Amino acid sequence: MPLNIEAEVLGGYPRSERVRKTLRRFEEKAEEGFIDVSRVVWEDTLLVVGAQLGAGLSTIVDPVIDWHDPLRPFAEAWRNVAVDGLLRWFDNNFFYRIPVFTDMPDPKRLVTPPRVIQLRKILPRFARLKIVLPGPVTFARLSKNMTGRSLEELAAEIASILAREAEKAAEAGAAVVQVDEPFLADIDATSEDAVLAAELASRILSAAAAKGASTRLAIPYNVPEPQIYEKLLDVKADYIVLDMVDNPAKVLQLLEAKGLGNHGLGAGIIQARDIYPDNYEKIKEALDKALETTKAENLLITTSAWLDLIPLNYAIEKTRIVARIAEQYRAEKQH
Q1: Which of these, 120, 172, 177, 245, could form a disulfide with 208 (CB 3.0-4.6 Å)?
Q2: 238 — alpha (psi -120 to 50), left (phi > 0) or beta?
Q3: Which residue positions in the chain have pLDDT lower than 70?
Q4: What is the reported pLDDT for 110?
Q5: CATH code (residue 48)
């Protein structure tokens, strides 16, 4: 069976200097009107969507440049959740507001379906729109749980809300739904976290798949330990996406020992955390080894993380690199 190769950016994009300054004037100085803020954010969203299309990608990720961090839009959309002080987002030079759960979350509104509706209006029909949801285990682990309930109960309730997000986003036109669980590559992650994450991510992604969406579980920023990864193989997703940049040898050992569990190979092979061009020959060598090891029939070429950690001009160049490397690798595999 011929190898099917897909390509897309893993997640969100950085803000331009214009958006940063506009938001600062609005949020900190009360010197900007909310209509003007919305217009500036929307114009930059169109720019980034256009950059993805212009690069030749057919799967277009929502750039979420208006989001302050991956958790906050959801925390602000749910009752019984407040946002507290800043904490570093894993090992990145990036901070998030800590969600504080005072009781079990109760959604006031859905976050992603209105975004899908708006973006679908400007996308060509051939383009597949992708949204990214926070993983419920990562969400619960990075929050303050003051509910009196267990972490497992809180994560399960978060998953129920996110499953509704996934279902309604897919109904609105999202062709790809991804769940990010970066905590599973953290040193503090346990096998119990992985079992719970696989179960809850399956619940979310199955809701999207039932509406026709393709699905991914992504583990950015590091490589999960073997005892963690093997538990994730039970997840119901089309792809499990691994960071193949920072420690490619460890990823290959993981794939050789544990396989893919009937998933496609999600290769986070384009470095998202620096601005330097990626070397095609090195990438080709890593992909060849991974495919030889796993016998995968489906390959997803993507970035190792979201592109929001580097300046916008470099993020757009990385977008072009994703498309170019996928095209070159596809051409070689067809001969």
Answers
A1: 177
A2: alpha
A3: none
A4: 98
A5: 3.20.20.210
pLDDT of residue 100: 98
Contact 267, 239 (CB under 8 A): no
pLDDT value at residue 164: 99
**pLDDT value at position 162?**
99
* The model's pTM: 0.96
The count of domains in the chain is 1
Domain range for residue 48?
4-333
Longest dimension (CA), the chain: 60
Output the CA–CA distances (angstroms, integers) from residue 218 to 76, 132, 183, in the order listed: 24, 10, 11
Q: What pLDDT was estimated at residue 24?
A: 85
What per-residue confidence (pLDDT) applies to 91? 82
